[in-house]
Write a structure and sequence with these properties.
With about 70 residues, this protein is an alpha+beta fold. Helices cover about 20% and strands about 40% of the residues. The longest helix is centred in the first third of the chain and has 13 residues, at about 1-15. It is globular, with a radius of gyration of 13 Å.
């Protein structure tokens, strides 16, 4: 299960584009402004840009994740 989740996260990271809203591993919420090979620039507020490594992105906001029901 962990390998599957990591594979999905890597797929999400590689599909990041300008305008996506994301949360970093540190809990920073922002909008993608620019994407390079290994870095992402996020706008976290008016006039505030922060550069992160792509691997620091935890998830996209608003992404619907299917949850398995356990009996």
């Amino acid at each position: 299960p962990q390998q599957k989740e990591e594979k999905e996260r890597l797929k999400m990271i590689n599909s990041l584009k300008k305008g996506d809203k994301v949360v970093t591993l540190g809990g920073v919420i922002g909008t993608v402004v620019k994407v390079d090979d290994s870095e992402v620039m996020l706008r976290t507020g008016p006039g505030t840009l922060i550069k992160f490594e792509k691997s620091a992105i935890r998830k996209k906001i608003g992404e619907v994740k299917e949850v398995e029901k356990s009996s």
